[in-house]
Design brief:
This is Intein C-terminal splicing region. Keywords: Signal. The chain has about 220 residues and is mostly beta strands. The chain has one domain: Porin (Beta Barrel). It is built from one helix and 13 strands. A hairpin with a 2-residue loop joins strand 3 and strand 4. The longest helix is centred in the N-terminal third of the chain and has 18 residues. The protein is globular and about 50 Å long.
Length: about 220
């Protein structure tokens, strides 16, 4: 099973590198907070805020708030999660700023593997999207790698490289929704916190869109143990 997951992961990463080939591109910025906090030995609380801009700051494209409860099937791994997302979008339509609200329910499974310095993660996510005048479903698969640079492990005060590729598949036609490819440098602040800064390219409807991303990750446990 591990060999199958690994082959799938590197296949998707390879496809992602092809997907960033040249289409029209413009640059935005995403500022992100991710919390994954233990509330018991098996349960965790996921909490997330993403502030996405058309430019560096000030021209809001999307505000995304997600939360959920997860359960580890094995010790600190193989996590299943049920969550909810609130998404406020402000796209331009014919040059005019508009506003849309989406409520989203999602189910996901995350599994992690380690090969020497390589910390590999697979995330499978199913989304039920309640838009203002529509209902849609979507499947997402993400594979990511964290690779420590200045130390052999992801230890405090160490630098690391982070890459991922994520493909989105719609239950409607067309099936292909979008693909995201990401690369960043990160810094491990302590055993429960780290920060990343990088670049993500999104291919959607034959158009590439670049995003500068800054993310903060908080894993401080809420339980006493």
């Amino acid at each position: 099973m591990k060999k199958i997951l690994t082959k799938l992961a590197f296949t998707v990463l390879s496809l992602g590198s092809v997907a960033v080939a040249a289409q029209k591109s413009d640059l935005g910025a995403w500022y992100m907070y991710f919390g994954n906090n233990k509330i018991s030995k098996k349960l965790n609380l996921h909490n997330e805020i993403q502030y996405r801009n058309f430019d560096a700051v000030g021209d809001l494209e999307q505000l995304l708030i997600r939360t959920g409860i997860g359960y580890d099937l094995t010790e600190n791994n193989n996590n299943v999660l049920l969550g909810y997302g609130f998404i406020l979008s402000r796209p331009y339509v014919n040059g005019e700023k508009t506003e849309n609200i989406e409520h989203r329910i999602f189910q996901q499974f995350i599994t992690r593997q380690k090969f020497g310095r390589f910390n590999l993660q697979h995330r499978y996510r199913l989304e039920e999207r309640f838009l203002q005048d529509d209902f849609r479903m979507r499947f997402r698969y993400m594979v990511g790698l964290n690779i420590p640079i200045t130390q052999k492990e992801m230890l405090p005060k160490s630098l690391y490289a982070s890459v991922y590729n994520e493909i989105f598949l719609s239950f409607d036609s067309p099936v292909f929704d979008r693909n995201r490819v990401y690369g960043a440098l990160g810094y491990v602040i302590n055993k429960n916190m780290r920060i990343e800064a990088g670049y993500m390219n999104q291919l959607q409807e034959n158009r590439n869109r670049g995003q500068i991303q800054i993310g903060f990750y908080n894993n401080i446990p809420f339980n006493k143990n």
